[in-house]
Structures are given as structure tokens and as C-alpha cells.
Automatic annotation (TrEMBL):
Family: Belongs to the helicase family. RecG subfamily.
SMART domains referenced in this protein's UniProt entry, alphabetically: DEXDc, HELICc
Domain Helicase ATP-binding: 271-433
Recorded catalytic activity of this chain's protein: ATP + H2O = ADP + phosphate + H(+); Couples ATP hydrolysis with the unwinding of duplex DNA by translocating in the 3'-5' direction
Protein name stated in the entry: ATP-dependent DNA helicase RecG
Function: Plays a critical role in recombination and DNA repair. Helps process Holliday junction intermediates to mature products by catalyzing branch migration. Has replication fork regression activity, unwinds stalled or blocked replication forks to make a HJ that can be resolved. Has a DNA unwinding activity characteristic of a DNA helicase with 3'-5' polarity.
Lineage of source species: Bacteria, Pseudomonadati, Bacteroidota, Chitinophagia, Chitinophagales
InterPro entries, A to Z: ATP-dep_DNA_helicase_RecG (IPR004609), DEAD/DEAH_box_helicase_dom (IPR011545), Helicase_ATP-bd (IPR014001), Helicase_C-like (IPR001650), NA-bd_OB-fold (IPR012340), P-loop_NTPase (IPR027417), RecG/Mfd (IPR047112), RecG_dom3_C (IPR045562)
Keyword terms of this UniProt record: ATP-binding, DNA damage, DNA recombination, DNA repair, DNA-binding, Helicase, Hydrolase, Isomerase, Nucleotide-binding
Gene this protein is translated from: recG
Superkingdom of origin organism: Bacteria
GO MF annotation list: DNA helicase activity; hydrolase activity
EC code: 5.6.2.4
Domain called Helicase C-terminal: residue spans: 458-614
């Protein structure tokens, strides 16, 4: 292949090596194994392959109406061939009087079969069958097709490559026992049959084998990291449950913990007492009480003489955590401080001094806690809230703030479906709070169309008359900030006509506002100074206003499922019955209709996350990891769930028996992992 075309393949499809070409799988196969006699062609038949002698060409028509025709004749009849383009090229390349194999879409004109723009190749009449294999069709691009590198040409390259390969080039990487128990074909056979299978069954067996390999090694790498950490990583030891924890639990806890919260506390308690670094993902639905679990862990750290830090993605959320924690810990001798981007320099200096001296037990903050000047006396626990808002590199910087890496608890309120969690977070231990605290009333969710607007507004007025507060949310449309802003302003004006001042007061928050103004408007709503909060999705994460009882989401069809669920979780935080109203336009697509149906039928975040995964696929779900661990070539983790489970089970059995992969039968796994340069030595970061 010349340098120009090679460069184009690299740019367009990322194919640099023979290995890349081998991993460029066909997206379908064409069956050219059979030859159909002309007389057997029937109107219902889509594509067919015919063999016979080519008659002389005939040019018909003028200028634009010009077409080239010829006929293929076999023993049973005549098939018409027609070309409208590349006429002079066809006349040069194809020779009448010779036998050809012709393939294409069959149509009938005046009762006679014909193929327009057929695929043709020379044929040996001695051969009674077509090809010995199903012909692959490969993904290509317009630029490549222009340089004569379409799907068929890529097929020729792959065919040439496969004839040169032997089993030594593609050594087996799965243990024999595993292959036999799962009935998997050999690796070499799988690569041959995914490209050039003789039958559909062989193709399917090849796909199954290569899918399993893909998901199995992704799991193995993750689990190896986890086993390594469990065996070798050093962590600080929280030996005792001390006075602070016990006093808080008995005297200050505002409510009885749920069984799920107790179970998670116990898992964390065991982790932090082992002397190994804890790396745990804590997932709970909106309002399931993750923060109280986090606080109890911070007290555990303080009891053992260690400092703890809680990192939140936004200033509003950090302040809210700080206020909440400070109030709850009022009776205890615990020092809590806050550090954000807007902390005044004098105050910042004081916090930094006291932190380094060990006088502050707990620090709450935003990204500001990562910065270099922030030094701890002895950091023992890091809690990261809403983990998908922080990049891997940002989290890593907290590691360097202690000689022994601190324990890490990563919290997320976007429930992640189990399959996705196993695949994306296989290197983290995993806890779930799957029940809501008692006394939380389920939020009633309804779907209304635009023409119900005035009755919806009357309902909001009735709730405000009862002393409640209301959120009105407008969507953010990624493409255009300007359009977003105009939509919001238009919506705000419309809300003002329904709710005129001074009878009603409205707060507005959007992305273009200066931070201080945003904070002030939020504060006014939190302190019940305004009854209505009009906002874009800024309030999605964590804001707590127990008195807000209605969430109205405008143009709900523009939101994803998990986003709608997150927004709904902002209400229903007090004792009053709460409502979420999904307002949409009259015309809804099938997927939007399905989303409305799911939202009105369940409040369970895990059910919603599963549905979200089915509707949108894993690529778009927030918080599924920044490292691209999910970029599989063949595996679809929604449809291949059973295979994900099987791979995980095999992985765990192997590592339980042989964590170092040192047994002779596991040598093939070790060799393969070694050969995958740059893929295994991941940083040990949650």
C-alpha cells in the first residue's frame, strides 16, 4: 500500500498496523456462496448471484438519459444488466463474450429480471458454486471511497493479511479449561471466522469468542488492580469506634438509620480497620442519606486522630454540606472549616495554618482543597461527592497530601446500573444505599402538555398560598448559549405575568450570572425570601430546600432520564407532599414519550438508571468513568449482560485461586496482559 493511501487509512479509521486492520471488523456479510439460475429469480428475492456469459454492450439514449445495457445468459434464461454511471470505465474493464459472476439487487422490468450497477468478477464455468465464504462488508468513509478504499477494497487487504497469519501470530490467551467449559472457539479460528466465515453459525461463534475475550480482559485488569490494592496498598488504620462517633450516634443523630445505611457503615468500618487503603464507591438514590454516612465516617477518622476532607463540586453544595455538618456537630468538640474559591484571603490563611497544625478535624470545600498551599497535619479520609464532576487527575492530587494514602469514599447520587458499575468501576469496592429514610413521602409525578399551562400555573399558586415554594426549570441546549439565555428570559417574563410582584417574589439563577449574584439569589430562595426559583439546571446537584414542594420542568422532552430524576429529587425533602410536573410540547417522539412514562411510573433511581442505559446506551450516562474503559469494539453491555456476568464470575474464580496468575494454566493470561503495553499499569486512583 502506498504512503498516501496508508496515511489516509490512519487518519480516517485509525488503522496503523496489521493488528489494527485485524481489529477492524466487518459490520455485515454478503452471501455469495450460492449461484441462482436466472429462471429461479423471483420478485420477492432481494439480492442474488447469477453466473453466465456476457452479451455485447448496447448504448441507449442521449446525454442525461444515456444508459449502458448488456445481458448475462445461463442455461435457464437471460438477466438484463444496466449502468447509468461510469459507462466508459465499464466498457474498458469488462469484456463481452466472457463468463462472469454477477451480484446485486434484483428488480423486474416489464416482467424481466434485471440488476442495476451489478458487482462483477470473472468466473470459471467449471466451478458450480460461488465463493467458499461469506463476503465481509467493512465500515469505510467517503474520503476513503474516493481513493478506492471502500468496504470491498479493505476486504481484499484483510483477506491478503489473513492468508499470511498462522497460530503463532495469534496465540491463545484464554486457559483451555475455561474455553472448554464455555465452549469457545480458538482465538486464531475466531479471527478467521469473524472476517471470512463459511457459514453464519461460524461467524456467530467467532463473535461470541471475541466478545468474551474483550469483556473478560477488561474485568481482569480492573480486578487485578483491586486485588493488588487489597493485598499490598498501605492504608491508615482506624482502630476504634471512639467517643465522638458514639456520642453523636446516641445523642445527635436526627433520625434512626435505615438498614442499608447501617450495612454500608459496617462495610466501611471493616475496610478502614484492615491497614489497606479503602477505595469505595457509595451509590444511593437522591435523598437516601449518603451525607450522614459520610459524616459518621469523618467522626470515625477524628476518633482515631486523623483529619477528613469532604470535596463537593460546587460552592453552593459545599456551603450546604458545611452548614449541615456544623449544626449537627454543635454539641461535640469537633472543629469544622470550609474552603472555597471565594474564601477571603485573611480567613484562608487562618484555615491553612490551623489545618497544618492539626487543629481542624474536618474540612469541607470545592476544588480549592486540592491546591498546593493546602497542607494537612495527618489526612486519613477523603470523601468526594458527585464523583463524575471531578477528573482523575484532580482526585490524584489529594493522595499527595499524606505520607500514607488516605482512605477514599466516592459518592454519587446518579445511580449506576449494576452491569455498568461492574464494568466501569471494577477496581472499586461497591456499596449501595437502596432504601429511603422513613417519613419521606414519594413524590407524585405527572406529565402535562403545553395546552394545560394555565391549570398548571393555578396549581402552583395554590401551593404557594399554602406557604410552599416552587422550582421552575428550563433546559440547557448544548448548541447555543445565546438561545438558552433567550429561552430562559422569555420563560422568566412569562412566569412574571402569572406571578406579579409584590404578591410573589422570584429568584433567577443561570450560568451567565456572576457567582456572587447566583449565590445571593440561591440564598434568598433557601431562606424563603422568594417563593419561586426560575433556573437552568444549575440546581441539579444537592441543593436542599425542605419547604420546596413543586418542581415544574419546562420542555421536559429535552432532558435525559437521569437528569429528570436528579431534578425531581430537589423536592420532597420536607414533611409535605411534593409534586413534579413534566411539561412538554404537543408532539413527542417515541423515546421522549417513553421517558415521560418511566418518570411518572417510578421513583426508584436504580430502575430509572437501567432504563436510561437501555434507551441511550452507556456512552452518555454521566459518571461512567473518564478513562474510556467502556470503549468496546464488540461488546454492548446492555445486550450482552449475561456475558458480562459470566466474565466477572470467571475472573473472580481465577483470582481467588491464583491472585498472581502464577499457575502454569494461567501463564497464557499473564503473557497476554504483558503484551498489552500501556493498558495494565493504571494509576491506582479511584
Amino acid at each position: 500500500m502506498g504512503p498516501q493511501r496508508a496515511e489516509l487509512l490512519q487518519k480516517e479509521l485509525g488503522i496503523f498496523t496489521f493488528g489494527d486492520l485485524l481489529l477492524h471488523y466487518p459490520f455485515r456479510h454478503v452471501d455469495k456462496t450460492r449461484i441462482t439460475p436466472v429462471a429461479a429469480l423471483a420478485p420477492g428475492e432481494e439480492y442474488a448471484q447469477v453466473a453466465g456469459l456476457l452479451s455485447p454492450f448496447e448504448l441507449i439514449g442521449e446525454r442525461r438519459a444515456r444508459r449502458l445495457t448488456a445481458q448475462i445468459r445461463d442455461k435457464t434464461g437471460v438477466l438484463e444488466l444496466v449502468w447509468f454511471q461510469s459507462i466508459s470505465l465499464i466498457q474498458k474493464v469488462i469484456q463481452p463474450g466472457q463468463p462472469y459472476l454477477v451480484y446485486g439487487k434484483v428488480s423486474f422490468f416489464m416482467g424481466k429480471p434485471q440488476i442495476v450497477h451489478p458487482e462483477m468478477e470473472a468466473w470459471d464455468p467449471e466451478k458450480l458454486r460461488g465463493k467458499d465464504f461469506l463476503e465481509p462488508v467493512y465500515p469505510s468513509t467517503e474520503k476513503l471511497k474516493a481513493k478506492n478504499l471502500g468496504g470491498r477494497q479493505i476486504g481484499k487487504l484483510t483477506a491478503a493479511l489473513i492468508t499470511h497469519l498462522t497460530e503463532r501470530d495469534l496465540p491463545e490467551n484464554l486457559p483451555l479449561k475455561m474455553r472448554e467449559s464455555l465452549r469457545l472457539m480458538s482465538r486464531f479460528e475466531a479471527f478467521r471466522n469473524i472476517h471470512f466465515p463459511q457459514t453464519t453459525a461460524l461467524y456467530e461463534a467467532a463473535v461470541r469468542r471475541l466478545k468474551f475475550e474483550e469483556i473478560f480482559f477488561a474485568q481482569l485488569r480492573m480486578n487485578l488492580l483491586r486485588w493488588e490494592r487489597h493485598r499490598f496498598s498501605k492504608g491508615v488504620v482506624f482502630e476504634k469506634v471512639g467517643d465522638l462517633f458514639n456520642r453523636f450516634y446516641k445523642e445527635c443523630l436526627p433520625f434512626e438509620l435505615t438498614n442499608a445505611q447501617k450495612r454500608v457503615l459496617k462495610e466501611i468500618r471493616i475496610d478502614t480497620g484492615k491497614g489497606k487503603q479503602m477505595n469505595r464507591l457509595l451509590q444511593g438514590d437522591v435523598g437516601s442519606g449518603k451525607t450522614i454516612v459520610a459524616l459518621l465516617n469523618m467522626l470515625l477518622a477524628a476518633d482515631n486522630g486523623f483529619q477528613a476532607v469532604l470535596m463537593a463540586p460546587t460552592e453552593i453544595l459545599a456551603r450546604q454540606h458545611f452548614q449541615g455538618i456544623k449544626e449537627l456537630l454543635e454539641p461535640l468538640p469537633v472543629e469544622v472549616a470550609i474552603l472555597t474559591g471565594t474564601t477571603k484571603s485573611k480567613e484562608r490563611r487562618l484555615v491553612l495554618e490551623r489545618l497544618a497544625a492539626g487543629e481542624i478535624h474536618m474540612l469541607v470545600g470545592t476544588h480549592a482543597v486540592i491546591e498546593d498551599p493546602v497542607q494537612f497535619h495527618n489526612l486519613g479520609l477523603v470523601i468526594i461527592d458527585e464523583q463524575h464532576r471531578f477528573g482523575v487527575a484532580q482526585r490524584a492530587r489529594l493522595w499527595d497530601k499524606a505520607p500514607i494514602p488516605p482512605h477514599v469514599l466516592v459518592m454519587t447520587a446518579t445511580p449506576i446500573p449494576r452491569t455498568l458499575a461492574m464494568t466501569a468501576y471494577g477496581d472499586l469496592d461497591y456499596s449501595v444505599i437502596d432504601e429511603l429514610p422513613p417519613g419521606r413521602k414519594p413524590i407524585q409525578t405527572v406529565h402535562r402538555f403545553e395546552n394545560d399551562r394555565s391549570s398548571v400555573m393555578d396549581f402552583l399558586k395554590a401551593e404557594i398560598a399554602l406557604g410552599r415554594q416552587v422550582y421552575v426549570i428550563f433546559p440547557l441546549i448544548e448548541e447555543s448559549e445565546k438561545l438558552d439565555y433567550e429561552n430562559l428570559m422569555q420563560g422568566y417574563e412569562e412566569i412574571k405575568t402569572y406571578f406579579p410582584e409584590p404578591q410573589y417574589w422570584i429568584s433567577m439563577v443561570h450560568g451567565k450570572m456572576p457567582a456572587f449574584q447566583k449565590e445571593e439569589n440561591m440564598r434568598r430562595f433557601v431562606t424563603h425570601d422568594t417563593q419561586i426559583m426560575v433556573s437552568t439546571t444549575v440546581i441539579e446537584v444537592g441543593v436542599n430546600v425542605p419547604n420546596a414542594s413543586v418542581m415544574l420542568i419546562e420542555s421536559s422532552e429535552k432532558f435525559g432520564l437521569s437528569q429528570l430524576h436528579q431534578l425531581r429529587g430537589r423536592v420532597g425533602r420536607g414533611a409535605e407532599k411534593s409534586y413534579c410536573i413534566l411539561l412538554t410540547g404537543k408532539k413527542l417522539g417515541n423515546e421522549a414519550r417513553e421517558r415521560m412514562k418511566i418518570m411518572t411510573s417510578t421513583n426508584n433511581g436504580f430502575v430509572i438508571a437501567e432504563k436510561d442505559l437501555e434507551l441511550r446506551g452507556p456512552g452518555e450516562i454521566e459518571g461512567t468513568r473518564q478513562s474510556g474503559a467502556l470503549s468496546f469494539k464488540l461488546v454492548d453491555i446492555v445486550n450482552d449482560r449475561a456475558m458480562v456476568d459470566a466474565a466477572k464470575q470467571q475472573c473472580e474464580e481465577i483470582l481467588k485461586e491464583d491472585p498472581d496468575l502464577s499457575l502454569p494454566e494461567h501463564e497464557v493470561l499473564k503473557d497476554f496482559l504483558r503484551s498489552q503495553k500501556g493498558k495494565t499499569a493504571w494509576s491506582k486512583i479511584s
